[in-house]
Amino acid sequence: MDIELAPQAREWQTKAREYADDYLLSYEVEAELNGGVLPADIARRNKARAVELGFSGMDVPEASGGHALSIEAQVAVWEQLGALPMPCRGALPSRKAGCSRRVTEYQQQKYVLPLMHGTKHDCYAITEEGPGSDVSSLKATAVRDGDDYVLNGEKWFVTGANLADYFWFQARLQDEDDDTLFFIDQGTPGIEVIASPSFSHTFAAHHPTYRLYRCACTCRQPDRPGR
Q1: CA nearest neighbour of 37 among 207, 206, 204, 208
Q2: Residues 225, 202: contact at Cβ < 8 Å?
Q3: Spatial distance between the Cα atoms of 180 and 169, rounded to a whole number of angstroms
Q4: CA 188 from chain center: how many Å?
C-alpha cells in the first residue's frame, strides 16, 4: 500500500535520513566494539546537531519552544532513526519534553525543558520484581510526611539510569489509594544501586536495579508531576 506523506512529514523524514547518514552510521562498528560508547567529542557533536535540527523538541508545544509536530511527522523521523543500531542512537536527546502539559512551571524549567535542550537525561523507574510494569500492582510507596513525600521500594531494569540526571519514579500513594510519578534527582539520599545485570547488547545505557529507602521528595517546590 502506498502512503503519501504530508509535506511536513516528508521534510522531517529527509532531515532525519540526512542526519543518520552524515552523523551516525559511520560510527556503527566503533560503537558496537566499545560498549555503545563513542568518543566524547563525537557524542557531543552528534547530540548538538540533533538538538539543532529539532529532534528533541518534535513533540513539545510551540509555546515552550518546541515544534509540535504531527504524529505522522514524528513517526516519519523515528522510522529513519529507528533503523540505526541502538548504540548510534545513544547520542539523541531524550524526547519526553511533551510532558510539559502535565507539570508545574518549576518542574518545566528544572526537569522537562532541559531534555529538549539536551542538557539533562532522564530515566523511568517503574518495573518491579513481582508486578513488572503493571502500575495497578506496584509495591513502591509514597507517604506524605509534612512538606515531603517519603518513597520506599525497589525498581528493576531502569534503562539508562547510569546516564540519567533524574528519575521519573512511579509509586503507590497509600493515603490516596492511587499511583503517581515523582521526580527524583540522582544522588538524593536513600537511593542505592543493588544490581546492574548484563544484557545481550552493547548499549552505553545500562539497566540497574535501585532500592529507595526513606527517600524524601519535597512538596514545597513540587517533585510530583500533575496527573
Answers
A1: 204
A2: no
A3: 8
A4: 18
